[in-house]
Amino acid sequence: MSDSVKRGYASPLRTAQAQATRRRIVGAAADLFVASGFAGTSVDAIAEAAGVSRKTVFATVGGKTELLGLALDWAVAGDDAPVPLAARPEVVALLELPHPGAVLDGWAAVLTDIDARVDGLFAALECAAASDEAARALFEQVSAQRREGARAIVGAVAGLGGLRADLSRSEAIDVAALFTEPVLHRRLVGARGWSRRRFERWLASTLRRQLLSRPDSR
């Protein structure tokens, strides 16, 4: 068998092994960031938890900021597929709904699922951003991404003629972006013991009242 054929057979195996190692490293980092915080987690601890060397951590993903950023990306999306949230079927589908109330209800469901996955990681990032420059830059990047998501939702609602007349487009985006803050989920579900379903209903109702000219429309 020629070398080229051997390489062809070996390549998928190597790719799968590399992906498995990457997932293990990012998973270990996510668990440690949630349990010990950003400052309290070392690359050595991540390497030990993942069963790899420190060098492998850096070569596969990077330093702590890159690890936290990737862990957040995967938590937001729900997996490690290279598909941005805006291109995910559930988001594409809700942006095509014919009624503004249904758009916000669908968005509340998506946000609730995301919050449940990112809650602890985002808390670690918020804390780190207060004293770490790289973490602060990541925090600003994540915040900008959330605002872009809010912009798309407001655009869909406005396109359907549902936006409140007393809100400018910019103000509506400000309000919508506010309700993407995972801290709301952390306070109500994590601290106060609300069920996810109750939180989702509250979020949908609040978004409707804040953004729609007719909050009870279907």
| Strand percent estimate | under 5%
Helix content estimate: over 70%
Number of domains: 2
Q: Could you say which structural class the secondary elements and strand pairing correspond to?
A: mainly alpha
Morphology call: elongated
Radius of gyration: 20 Å
How would you spell out the order of helices and strands? HHHHHHHHHH
Describe this structure in words.
The chain is an all-alpha fold and 218 residues long. The protein has 2 domains: 82 residues, Homeodomain-like (Arc Repressor Mutant, subunit A), CATH 1.10.10.60; 136 residues. Helix 6 packs across helix 10. The longest helix is centred in the N-terminal third of the chain and has 34 residues. The protein is elongated, with a radius of gyration of 20 Å. The mean pLDDT is 93. GO terms for molecular function: DNA-binding transcription factor activity; transcription cis-regulatory region binding. Keywords: DNA-binding, Transcription, Transcription regulation. InterPro entries: Homeodomain-like_sf, HTH-type_TetR-like_transc_reg, HTH_TetR. This is TetR/AcrR family transcriptional regulator.
